[in-house]
Design goal:
With 288 residues, the protein is an alpha+beta fold. 18% of the residues lie in helices and 36% in strands. The chain has a domain of 123 residues. It has a nine-stranded antiparallel β-sheet with strand order 2-3-4-5-1-6-9-8-7, with helices on one face. The chain is globular and about 60 Å long.
Length: 288
């Protein structure tokens, strides 16, 4: 089951959800095929027991001439791989006035985005006005398969747009680590701000957010950590989102793939650097 979103905000950690579905070892979309995106450190392929919950690549566009026929036309092109189609409605309100009766209001649904899912619902494409998102649940099939899926879906989508500019790209990896009831941040994550003695108390929950600038590729890494509780089980969340900077000009479409590959490298580096070394070794060991 999918939550209705393109990406998961960590500022409301209770909204994270538990998901576990099967995934084929690779996913390909027909028609134009992009070469492998460079990425020297493929997240999920060098770790035996990756804690990845979900990976998302999101594109935001300025696309004059966009209309609601485009999601249907995209579905026609990729339905062999994404045969399940559904619609997400944005709530709006309709106000009715009558001369002899009081006014009444009711909620009505207006299309917000169309979701196209694989048969096992482990991967999904979301399309809305000026929005394209590709989501992958666990088990993560590896960077080669995920990046190929991203670029092939992107190619099919922009081929349907009369005109467009890319306003924003984001690549996001959401990780979930089980923790003990009384835990120390430093046992799991190295970003552990020291507290003065008067505040050095058993930790119930926490939330941290950092925005870090990078030049290669140019972008901002949004690094968020916090806690989540699901059915009396507690987890530490490591949410890594690499986004393009405002007014960033990507030029030709061929510039997209190297940027996404570089964003992936920065996310993987941040993932390794953020974990307690003992925990990272355990995730990469034979035991689960």
């Amino acid at each position: 089951m999918w939550e209705e979103r393109t990406s998961t905000p960590i500022d409301a950690l209770a909204r994270y959800m538990a998901v576990s579905t099967s995934c084929s070892s690779s996913i390909h979309v027909h028609r134009r095929h992009y070469p492998r995106i460079p990425g020297a450190s493929p997240m999920g392929e060098r770790i035996r027991n990756p804690p990845l919950l979900e990976a998302i690549c999101e594109f935001r566009f300025d696309s004059p001439g966009w209309d609601w026929t485009i999601p249907g036309r995209l579905f026609d092109r990729i339905q062999d791989q994404f045969p399940i189609r559904s619609q997400v409605n944005a709530p709006t309100f309709e106000l009715k006035m009558a001369p002899t009766a009081s006014a009444s209001a009711k909620a009505v649904g207006a299309p917000e985005r169309i979701q196209l899912k694989t048969g096992d619902e482990s991967a999904m494409v979301q399309v809305g006005r000026d929005l394209l998102a590709v989501n992958q649940l666990k088990p993560y099939p590896g960077w080669d398969a995920f990046s190929t899926m991203i670029m092939n879906v992107y190619s099919e989508y922009v081929g349907l747009l009369p005109k467009y500019d890319i306003r924003r790209i984001g690549l996001r990896y959401i990780n979930r680590l089980p923790v003990s009831e009384r835990f120390k941040i430093g046992d799991y994550l190295v970003i552990d701000p020291p507290l003065p003695e008067s505040l050095n108390r058993p930790l119930n929950s926490f939330f941290q957010r950092y925005e870090l600038n990078f030049d290669n590729p140019r972008g901002i890494l949004i690094h968020q950590t916090g806690t989540q509780t699901i059915e009396n089980s507690k987890f530490a969340m490591l949410d890594l989102d690499f986004v393009s900077t405002p007014q960033q000009d990507f030029g030709e479409p061929e510039a997209i793939a190297p940027w996404i590959g570089g964003a992936h490298d920065r996310i993987f580096d941040a993932f390794v650097a953020s974990l307690n070394p003992k925990l990272f070794a355990k995730l990469n060991s034979e035991e689960k």
